[in-house]
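Postdoc handover notes: sequence design on the structure in folder B. Input tokens:
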């Protein structure tokens, strides 16, 4: 059975365009994340910690002097909790300062705070308000966020056709999360007639930008012949790309491909490695397949698979 991955769900990902030298920060887990204390972090990565503290101090000074870009960047620093405890209250406060000054990035990030209830009380109507203001400035993240709100009926009346309109606006600007969301609409027939060819076209556009879940979905399409001709070699190749990005579903599928020789040369050691990696991410089927595969491998082969896994985890 074909299972698509979709990124059109609320996650605490704060948006930072190329205003700054650094790329998008990593996804920010929910409030329940286990945060390491600053002292422990300093002991492990003292140089990185000191550099981050200096950067935060620099941003703080600039933000307090009225630099709007610094306000947004400082908010993201507090939200990401990379080398200090995440502080969503401070993050939301700086996003609001930038948003009130009409900054689109501040507006969309404040909307995300309201959608997730991070640093503010969860309020989808308020989230929609800020997403709409940012979308008026052409912000792609705000556009896809509005689409999610319309698709789920959060803060607005549910309207799947309106959701597609917003997904398409952002997708046509090459925003990959919108491309995946639009592809999923075509796959499921939500707000548009079901069309597997259009679904795989939009998944492919996001996959070509290196987005792991989209690469997984393209692999699925080739495996099952959904919108494209079945091609197990192409399926395995796309699963491999997504697996290298850490997508557990793709790691599971790649493990099965190696185990069964589907689209690539059979390799039981590689199969065990990838199934184990997926199992570590709570993929139940991968765990079951890995346990069964143990009976077909020697202790030396399992040890080799685990060594390869350790190398991948360390170096990617």
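Designed sequence:
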């Amino acid at each position: 059975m074909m299972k698509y991955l979709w990124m059109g769900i609320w996650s605490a990902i704060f948006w930072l365009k190329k205003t700054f030298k650094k790329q998008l920060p990593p996804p920010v887990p929910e409030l329940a994340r286990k945060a390491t204390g600053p002292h422990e972090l300093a002991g492990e990565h003292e140089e990185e910690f000191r550099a981050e503290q200096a950067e935060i101090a620099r941003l703080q000074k600039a933000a307090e002097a009225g630099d709007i870009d610094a306000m947004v960047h400082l908010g993201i620093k507090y939200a990401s909790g990379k080398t200090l405890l995440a502080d969503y209250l401070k993050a939301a406060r700086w996003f609001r300062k930038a948003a009130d000054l009409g900054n689109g990035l501040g507006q969309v990030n404040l909307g995300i705070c309201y959608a997730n209830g991070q640093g503010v009380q969860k309020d989808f109507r308020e989230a929609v308000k800020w997403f709409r203001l940012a979308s008026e400035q052409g912000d792609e993240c705000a556009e896809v966020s509005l689409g999610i709100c319309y698709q789920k009926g959060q803060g607005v009346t549910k309207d799947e056709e309106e959701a597609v309109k917003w997904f398409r606006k952002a997708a046509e600007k090459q925003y990959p999360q919108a491309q995946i969301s639009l592809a999923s609409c075509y796959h499921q027939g939500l707000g548009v007639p079901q069309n597997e060819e259009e679904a795989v076209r939009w998944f492919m556009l996001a996959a070509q930008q290196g987005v792991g879940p989209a690469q997984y979905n393209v692999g699925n399409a080739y495996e099952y012949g959904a919108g494209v001709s079945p091609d197990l070699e192409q399926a395995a190749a796309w699963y491999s790309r997504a697996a290298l990005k850490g997508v557990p579903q793709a790691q599971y599928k790649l493990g099965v491909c190696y185990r069964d020789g589907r689209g690539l040369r059979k390799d039981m050691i590689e199969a065990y490695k990838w199934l184990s990696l997926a199992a570590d991410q709570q993929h139940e089927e991968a765990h079951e397949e890995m346990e069964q595969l143990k009976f077909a491998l020697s202790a030396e082969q399992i040890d080799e698979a685990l060594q390869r896994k350790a190398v991948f985890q360390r170096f990617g």
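Context for whoever picks this up: The mean pLDDT is 87. Don't rerun without checking with the PI first.
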